[in-house]
């Protein structure tokens, strides 16, 4: 699936701009700076596919990429940027809700959690929204190379506990480091099994 071409399709700011839902789709969500762009780049093997870092206040787009003509990989705007203006946040929440409940082909959301921080309040909000939208989600820990083993285990346990309370959560958590390449193959394999 990830050995072929991955191409940017478009950035979408409203539901009527979405590409046709004619293939399997997965999406990535996470707090700003969680390492989402870097992970999507590592996953697809491209250098600068997903834009690095979302700047606060910049247009919040849902970015669509195609993978092997059979899948869409969707990069949701980073959330939880304290400095983002209220109306930007409200607009993003509306679009996100519409997207999550309106995409019949969306098979799984991957919620990225920083190995250094564990699950924060904004992550809880996203996971609850995924519950309400009945979108199965799976948690991916990022930047695992940045923490010592003991801290990684502690934050993983906290995350596992938080995830267990969400009916839409897939229980298995994937631990990754885009920097070291850890877990990226596991993530690819999981995505490849989705039908
Ligand atoms: P985004 O805002 O979620 O898209 O985050 P980025 O992908 O832009 O990453 C934010 C920062 O974390 C950048 O400086 C990345 O180089 C760094 N980063 C991302 N993934 C990793 C990782 O696995 N390990 C380390 N050490 N740094 C990472």
TrEMBL record:
GO annotation, biological process: division septum assembly
Keyword annotations of the record: Cell cycle, Cell division, GTP-binding, Magnesium, Metal-binding, Nucleotide-binding, Septation
Annotated ranges, domain EngB-type G: 22-195
InterPro entries the record matches: G_ENGB_dom, GTP-bd, GTP-bd_ribosome_bio_YsxC, P-loop_NTPase
Cofactors required: Mg(2+)
Alphabetical list of CDD domains matching this protein: YihA_EngB
GO CC list: cytosol
GO molecular function: GTP binding; metal ion binding
A Pfam family: MMR_HSR1
Keyword rRNA-binding: no
Keyword Electron transport: no
Family assignment from sequence similarity: Belongs to the TRAFAC class TrmE-Era-EngA-EngB-Septin-like GTPase superfamily. EngB GTPase family.
Annotated function: Necessary for normal cell division and for the maintenance of normal septation.
NCBIfam families, per database record: GTPase_YsxC
PANTHER family: ENGB-TYPE G DOMAIN-CONTAINING PROTEIN, MSS1/TRME-RELATED GTP-BINDING PROTEIN
HAMAP family according to UniProt: GTPase_EngB
Protein name (Swiss-Prot/TrEMBL): Probable GTP-binding protein EngB
Name of encoding gene: engB
